[in-house]
Amino acid sequence: MSDGSVDLGWMRLLVEIARRGSLSAAAEGLGLTQPAVSYQMRLLEQRLGVPLLTRLHRGVRLTEEGRRLLVIAERTVQEVDALQRDIRHARRRPVIRLATDYAFSSLWLIPRMPGFRRQYPEIDLQIVAAQRLTQNWREQADLAVAFGARADVGEEAVLLMPERVVPVCAPALRDRLERSDLADLGRDAPRIHLEAEAGSPWLDWRSYAATAGLPAGSEQPTGDLRFNTYAMVVQAALGGQGIALGWLGIVDQLLEAGLLVVSGEAVDVPDRGYWLLGTAGDRAAAQLGSWLQDEATVITTASEHVAAER
Fold first, then answer.
1. Which of 82, 149, 193, 204 has the greatest number of CB atoms lying within 10 Å of its CB?
2. Strand duo 191-194 + 225-227: pairing
């Protein structure tokens, strides 16, 4: 008997021999020659020091030791085959990267992600979020959702949600304010501002008032709040800390749930809003793009109803 370690390459060979009943059939099934299979089995028997096969006139039969070894071999081969399938499936699983801003990702996309996963369970979606989409977004993403005007995004971009803006606040805050105060942009209530860099495409309170045809007011309301991300703006509004500008489509779910209420006039900004960029791509990217457009259509319809009610 040899003291060398047993070569594990014999496992699938033994399983095939037991399944097919002969060395030649096992060799054919594995794409090997019969002499090669016979040599491997003799070598294994020498290493173990016991016969594993009983040679018959036609075929072979496993000995008691061979059957004991077969139990281990079958279990191991099955587990290795299952692992191989899992690894191959994971390698084939498409991963799509979507670049967008913090507001869209946190307030619009993340709440709808369960629906996307149910519809496309085979696609892994990675979100690359920033305050504003950069010009080189294609270096890190397959698709992008960007806010701006048509001139900013190019002719190939697809409009997902046109820009509709309306003041919003917590229900308790609106209950404490008179209608006349709200019409004057909440003179007696703090306004919540999104602090953005110069050249930002988003409306601020002054540009909102100009678009709505309302006086911006020369007096600065006391206690105004300023944040550098829109998620914090919305969080402050939810907490009843003031009135914020709400982008319909982004805050619709909060309005529907009654966590925020409309507290001013809705305004539309033509040819500006959220756009889908990079729709040309592989099948998974196209599926994500189509899903985004379908979801946005539903949200845009709901936003139109909100705006009409005002």
1. 193
2. parallel
